Amino acid sequence: MKVREIFEAKEAALHIATPQQSLARAIDEMAEFDVGSLVVMEGGRMVGMLTFREVLQALRAHGSHIDGMTVGEVMIGDPVTVFPEMEINALRQLMVEKRSRYVPVLEEEELLGVISFLDVAKAVLEEQGLENRMLKRYIKNWPGDEAV
User: Which of 4, 62, 133, 138 has its CA 20 to 30 A from that of 122?
Assistant: First the structure.
């Protein structure tokens, strides 16, 4: 299974912010849309990622006083990215090694969307379920296993 297959099966909504956007507004949007990340865009290109990890670190560092802070001050400026033809096992390994729960998918320089660890887990479960059904069907119809 490849990243493209996971990406094609998921909801296509992409939630974005700008570096100049207030952190408080970004947090409101993340809560409103129940998402754990925002892609930070400027001039039509991705310049970073804001995830709940950066939000929590900013809250801790500033004693929960984030008034006046911007997304650009706390975002990941150079996030880990993947390409659509990457194998799912390589994606899982990368996400674990880099501790990335949200990974932008780029084709050339074009942002296609974001894959989350939850998207990967769902895809793996679905793939395993399909394999299990196929194996059970095969075993049930085992060649030479005639009813006595």
Answer: 138
User: How many domains, the chain?
Assistant: 1
SS (HEC) of the chain: CEHHHHHHHCCCCCCEECCCCEHHHHHHHHHHHCCCEEEEEECCEEEEEEEHHHHHHHHHHCCCCCCCCEHHHHCECCCCCECCCCEHHHHHHHHHHHCCCEEEEEECCEEEEEEEHHHHHHHHHHHHHHHHHHHHHHHHCCCCCCCC
Q: Does residue 146 form part of some domain?
A: no
pLDDT score of 148? 44
What is residue 132's predicted lDDT score, i.e. its pLDDT? 65
**Does the model's pTM come out above 0.90?**
no
